[in-house]
């Protein structure tokens, strides 16, 4: 598998500094942008927050999806398993090595910084295959699996952790669904099947 495959939409990944082996402990959800090669990286536990680099080169975890939270993915020539992440919001600035452009990297003290020179990273894939379907209004994509079974997988747990809910199909047998619908439809036509809902000023169906 190519390192670029790790950046598929919805994958959960971690970054590792190639030279030192230092792990960025936070895991991120990959969010490809419309511009090829650009990405944002959402926090697994809070998908509305993103990895970002501020104008002082400090790595933060409170970004939205603006330029400070956008990165350009670059490959390393002759090193197919390595990548570099260039900060879009700080494009053209002088990095710590005196060159142009800021990259995600590690300083001499082992701290992650956003104004490093070209610095190679490896990627650890935590989970793959978390397919998404974009909301009509442009809201965050929701977990979706047309072939999901009653068995809970690691991907389902990751989606539950990210979105707070799951849509499980084929959990309730069809016969039970049909039987429930039969009872409901039968009750709908009965005048004594309804009672006043005093709390909300309407009527509710009793079973």
Please name the defining characteristics of this protein:
six-stranded antiparallel β-sheet, 12% helix, elongated, 2 helices, mainly beta, two-stranded antiparallel ribbon, 14 strands, Trefoil (Acidic Fibroblast Growth Factor, subunit A), 207 residues
Strands across the major sheet, in which order? 7-6-3-2-1-10
Structural class per helix/strand content?
mainly beta
**Any idea of the CATH topology of the largest domain?**
Trefoil (Acidic Fibroblast Growth Factor, subunit A)
Number of helices: 2
Specify Rg, calculated over alpha carbons.
24 Å
Mind telling me the CATH class of the largest domain?
Mainly Beta
Please indicate the count of domains.
Answer: 3
The residue ranges in which pLDDT falls below 50 over 5 or more consecutive positions are: 131-149
| Strand content range | 25-35%
Q: What do the pLDDT scores average to?
A: 81
Distance between the first and last residues' Cα: 55 Å
Helix content: 10-25%
Assigned CATH architecture of the largest domain: Trefoil
The biggest beta sheet, please?
6 strands, antiparallel
């Amino acid at each position: 598998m190519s390192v670029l495959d790790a950046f598929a939409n919805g994958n959960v990944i971690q970054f590792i500094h190639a030279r030192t082996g230092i792990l960025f402990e936070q895991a991120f959800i990959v969010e490809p942008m419309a511009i090829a090669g650009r990405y944002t990286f959402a926090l697994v536990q809070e998908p509305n927050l993103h990895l970002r680099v501020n104008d002082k080169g400090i790595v933060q975890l409170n970004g939205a999806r603006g330029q400070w939270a956008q990165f350009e993915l670059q490959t390393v020539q002759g090193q197919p398993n390595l990548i570099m992440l260039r900060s879009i919001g700080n494009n053209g600035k002088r990095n710590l090595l005196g060159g142009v452009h800021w990259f995600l990297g590690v300083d001499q003290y082992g701290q992650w910084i956003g104004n490093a020179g070209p610095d190679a990273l490896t990627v650890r894939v935590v989970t793959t295959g978390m397919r998404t379907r974009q909301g009509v209004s442009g809201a965050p994509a929701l977990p979706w699996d047309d072939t999901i079974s009653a068995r809970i997988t690691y991907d389902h747990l990751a989606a539950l952790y990210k979105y707070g809910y799951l849509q499980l199909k084929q959990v309730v047998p069809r016969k039970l669904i049909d039987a429930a619908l039969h009872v409901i439809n039968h009750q709908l036509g009965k005048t004594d099947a309804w009672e006043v809902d005093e709390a909300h000023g309407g009527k509710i169906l009793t079973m």
